[in-house]
């Protein structure tokens, strides 16, 4: 991405990803200040929430030693900082609150892994942070898709 950015001239760079791509969006926007605005759809939850899950998810979400030093909250804030440490960028965590993909228990098809509305908790916390450049949004969508209604409302 850095090579691509150095070879090209763009006025504004946006990054959008879902699921594992949302995880990449959160990580890469935290370390590449050229990304002006990032949208991570159903990509990450702070590590604290993993304490309640039976299935810990993919290794890259919890298993790396990097999480001994940082949490996703650190990445969310870093995604709002420019190369001069000023909050000039925006980062959105967007969740589909009824997305069965994230909470579906394969061993028990009629149950969910966890029935807490993480998105609502995340929204309350993000609102209390009063960081206008970091926002948590949610939609009542039952599919594992990018919420295009929300996304296009931002432009």
How do the helices and strands line up, and which of them pair or pack?
Blueprint: H1 2-7, E1 14-18, H2 20-31, E2 37-41, H3 59-62, H4 72-78, E3 90-96, H5 100-103, H6 118-129, E4 134-139, H7 148-153
Parallel strand pairs: 1-2, 2-3, 3-4
Helix pairs in contact: 2-4
Provide an overview of this structure.
By secondary structure, the chain is an alpha/beta fold. The protein is 33% helix and 15% strand. It has seven helices and four strands; from the N terminus they run αβαβααβααβα. Strands 1-2-3-4 form a four-stranded parallel β-sheet. Helix 2 crosses helix 4 (72-78). The chain is globular and about 40 Å long.
Q: Give the CA-CA distance, first to last residue.
A: 23 Å
Major beta sheet summary: 4 strands, parallel
pLDDT < 50 stretches: 109-114
Secondary structure tally, helices:
7
Q: Give the overall shape.
A: globular
* Helix and strand element order: HEHEHHEHHEH
Secondary structure tally: strands: 4
Beta-strand fraction estimate: 5-15%
Rg, Å, rounded: 16 Å
Order of strands in the sheet with most strands: 1-2-3-4
Percent of residues in helical segments? 25-40%
What's the rounded overall pLDDT mean? 81
Helix/strand-derived category reads: alpha/beta
């Amino acid at each position: 991405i850095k090579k691509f950015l150095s070879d090209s001239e763009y006025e504004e760079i946006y990054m959008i990803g879902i699921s594992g791509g949302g995880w990449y969006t959160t990580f890469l926007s935290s370390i590449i200040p050229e990304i002006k605005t990032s949208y991570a759809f159903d990509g990450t939850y702070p590590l604290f929430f993993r304490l309640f899950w039976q299935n810990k998810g993919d290794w890259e979400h919890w298993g790396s030693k990097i999480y001994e030093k940082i949490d996703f909250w650190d990445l969310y804030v870093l995604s709002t900082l420019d190369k001069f440490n000023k909050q000039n960028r925006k980062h959105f965590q967007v969740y589909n609150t009824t997305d069965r993909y994230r909470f579906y228990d394969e061993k028990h098809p009629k149950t969910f892994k966890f029935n807490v509305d993480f998105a609502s908790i995340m929204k309350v916390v993000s609102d209390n942070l009063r960081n206008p450049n970091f926002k948590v949004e949610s939609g009542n969508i039952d599919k594992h898709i990018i919420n295009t209604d929300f996304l296009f409302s931002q432009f």
